[in-house]
Amino acid sequence: MSSTREQPLSARSDVSGATPEGAAWLASAGTYPRSTLALWEEQPDAPVVLPCGSTFDVVGAPAVFGRRMVDRLWAEGPGSGPVAAFRGRMLLFAAPGTAQRLPSLLHWEESGRTGAIPPLLCHGNGDAVTLPAPMATDGSPGRPESRWLVAPDTRHPWLPGPEILLWAAVRAARAAVRISIFPPADQGAKVYDVSRRR
After folding, report:
1. Residues 150, 55: contact at Cβ < 8 Å?
2. What percent of the chain has pLDDT over 90?
């Protein structure tokens, strides 16, 4: 019986969550999609550099905050598109154009209500990102920080736009910081028990 690694990419029904259609979608972002697929056939755990802007944009967040964003998207929102962990950052795939619009929305939001959103790196038109191979799950040998949390599984995955990612970032920031409408208690104040009054 052959292992998943020994099977050709096109024959695998599950490449660590990435289907052959999902791998083809990822490869379609590059200039030479067939070469990218051929690379994955020969080296199934090889990361690849792909351009952003036409097929997808990528928003990079610090790992913990990015995980909170993904949790909010799935628990309270519409879900997420593909999500990868790479070198200590969470890479959230977004609709093309998101990288151009999201920074101005974040600036508006931070000047209004919260400064708890860490810097998000927006990769769009003219940028390229290094992504895990479709089969990277728990990290490849020597690359434990490279894996898919939500792997692409179709040729046309749903991708969130800038407004949805802004919403997730705000929710994640609010979850990280307890917000109270009451002022902090005066630690030097005398407290009287009035529950036993007659």
Report:
1. no
2. 56
pLDDT reported for residue 130? 93
Tell me the range of 12-21, 68-77, 134-143, 186-195 where mean pLDDT is highest.
68-77
- Tracing tokens 């628990």 back to the chain, one arrives at 75
pLDDT at 18: 80
Number of other residues whose CB lies within 10 A of the CB of residue 122: 21
Is residue 188 exposed (0-12), middle (13-18) or buried (19+ Cβ within 10 Å)? exposed
Query: Which residue blocks in the chain are alpha helix, DSSP H?
Result: 20-28, 33-42, 63-75, 98-112, 162-176
What value, to the nearest 5°, has the Cα angle with vertex 74 and ends 114 and 103? 40
How far does CA 103 lie from the centroid of its chain? 16
DSSP, collapsed to helix, strand or coil, labels residue 55 as coil
Phi, psi of 195 (to 5 degrees): -75, -20
Contacts of 14 (CB under 8 A, 6+ apart): 4
Q: Which residue has the higher pLDDT, 42 or 163?
A: 163
Sign of CA dihedral 89, 92, 98, 101: negative
